[in-house]
Amino acid sequence: MWPEKPSCSRCGKEIHPEEMVYVQMRYPKRKGFTEIKAYLHNEGKFICEGCINREPD
Ligand SMILES: [Zn+2]
Question: Collapsing DSSP states into helix, strand and coil, what is residue 24?
Fold first, then answer.
């Protein structure tokens, strides 16, 4: 799984395994990103389902 436990970037709630999450990220410049996990960990912002269903700030 992930190197560290990810958490929601909005509410800070810990993301549990197999939980539905949304990832906000910048599309990589390089073609064929095989290091997707590392990329997501560095660049991605996780947003839990609860926050997605909630009104944006
Ligand atoms: Zn959240």
Answer: strand
Query: Can you tell me the distance from the alpha carbon of 50 to that of 21, in angstroms, rounded to the nearest whole number?
Result: 9
- Compute the distance from residue 53 Cα to the ligand 1 centre, in Å: 9
Domains of the chain, by residue range, sit at 1-57
C-alpha of residue 31 to centroid of ligand 1, in Å: 31
Residue numbers of the chain with a pLDDT score lower than 70: 1-3, 31-33, 56-57
Question: Distance, CA 56 to ligand 1 centroid (Å)?
Answer: 11
